Amino acid sequence: MDEQRRELPNGWVAITNGVVSAVGSGAPPSAREKIDASGCLVTPGLVNVHHHLYQNLTRAYGPMTDSALFGWLRTLYPLWSSLNEESAHVSAWVGLAELALAGCTTSSDHLYLHPRGGGDLLSAEIAAARDIGMRFHPTYGSMSLSEKDGGLPPDNVVQDHDEILSASERAVQQHHDRAHGAMVRVALAPCSPFSVTKQLMIDSANLAERLDVRLHTHFAENDEDDAYSLEKFGCRPTQYLQDVGWLHDRVWLAHCVKPNDDEVRRLGVAGVGVAHCPSSNLILSSGIAPVVKLRSAGVHVGLGVDGSSSADSASLWMEARQAMLLAKLVNGAAAGTARMALEMATRGGAGCLGRLGEIGELSAGSVGDLVVWSLDGPQFAGVVDDAIEGWLRCGPAAAKHTIVNGVPVVRDHRLVSSRVDAMLNDHARLAREMQSAGR
Fold it and tell me: What gap in Å lies between CA 168 and CA 176, rounded to an integer?
């Protein structure tokens, strides 16, 4: 997935000090350690550009399984209000482990919930990413409009304007790494136009420019979003983005299901990124994002697994397959290919995060993040002609090896960490505690 989109039969990748030092075919160079990928497909590590890791504590929660977005949020906010440092840490660890098992090496997270007395949730999840060895792009998310202000969330999970800006700047100063190959970078992420004030959107954009970090928010997710924008702001969502200073290449947006053709053009001209979340959009009956049009317009389209209580599964492989199938449905069979979906899962995500040439590809100087996919077993029997199409059309596929920064996180389909059982036990306890509050 380099700029030439090279595909190398009988290929090898050399990683030195966490960075790809060479890529080629034929006899590999000598190395201190070798991983045999015979009969396998090797791709760049997949990049997840939208998630809410803490939501795996409320997976498949019964009272909201038949709800559209706004009703779903109103049901779950009271449960999530008990989030604290322990539950943020454990849910992030388990969520990142799940991502790694399906070939993800870099993940963002949209942490917009900061309950009173919950502690430093962002630092808690960053510690989890460091422990498991994942490359991480957390965002300091925010909500400033509660139910009493006409918003959706309850009062105890929102912050005031100045508190949000101060905490956002502190998070960047404490955690953001600007170096090539950084393992942690922080972005600013007001949750959505219906949970923050217009002034917070403006001030967050100004702060991101001053700090030189990226911006993220939910955008045009469904018909309710469009109706809210027209009612509250007197314009469609893309015009609102422009009005608050968000229509530029520092921004990536989650969902983007409902842009019209003119908005698609404007988003492309502005150079924004879009996190396509196909499974979550289908489960919440939000619709199908026009990703083929967006890509043609110049938008960086990546993939997101979204929250684990909407999509309920954190597999970038599954999202790539879903994206391929939906593109075929909407735009014709030739429009949705495995290579298109793989590009969204790698280079598209790198574009969203401002890291093209660094993550999401295998070339000299890119980070040493890759996945080895086994193509054997009954589910891949008959895949002879095209390994990439076979990888995504067949399956399901799990990573045989997931390498991050030159270090195995998953080896032979198993997490390398010795803490898996303990973290799952803690997660089960915390999930029961959180869900019992809603019964």
Answer: 11
CB-CB contact of 302 with 348 (8 Å) = yes
Q: What are phi and psi of 376, to 5 degrees?
A: -110, 180
In the chain, % of residues over pLDDT 70: 98
Q: What is the DSSP letter of 346?
A: I
Parallel, antiparallel, or unpaired for β 407-411 and 414-415? Answer: antiparallel
- Position 70 scores a pLDDT of 72
Q: Output the pLDDT for position 66.
A: 62
At residue 110's C-alpha, the angle toward residues 163 and 329, to 5°, is 145
Closest CA to 84 of 433, 421, 439: 433
Is the pLDDT assigned to residue 416 strictly greater than 80?
A: yes
From the list 301, 310, 308, the residue with the least C-alpha distance to 275 is 301
Supply the DSSP string of 90-129, one letter for each residue. HHHHHHHHHHHHTTEEEEEEEE----TT---HHHHHHHHH
Task: Render pLDDT for 218-247 as a digit per residue (tens, 0 to 9).
Answer: 999 989 888 989 999 999 999 999 999 999
SS3 (DSSP) at 182? coil
Residue 41: partners with Cβ closer than 8 Å, 6 or more residues away: 372, 373, 375, 387, 388, 391
CB 20 within 8 A of CB 14: yes
The neighbour count for residue 291, using CB atoms within 10 Å, is 27
Note the pTM of the prediction, 2 decimals: 0.96
Per-residue pLDDT at 27 exceeds 60: yes
Helix (H, G, I), strand (E, B) or coil at 408: strand
pLDDT tens-digit map of 358-400: 999 999 999 999 999 999 999 999 999 999 999 999 988 999 9
Closest among 149, 235, 244, 135 to 186, alpha carbons compared = 135
The SS3 assignment for 403 reads strand
Instruction: Round the average pLDDT of the chain to a whole number and report it.
Output: 94
Q: Which of 362, 254, 345, 403 is nearest to 47 (CA)?
A: 345
Domains and CATH numbers, the chain: 46-352 (3.20.20.140)
pLDDT category of residue 407 using cuts at 50, 70 and 90:
very high
d(CA 62, CA 65): 5
In angstroms, the CA 302 to CA 277 distance is: 9
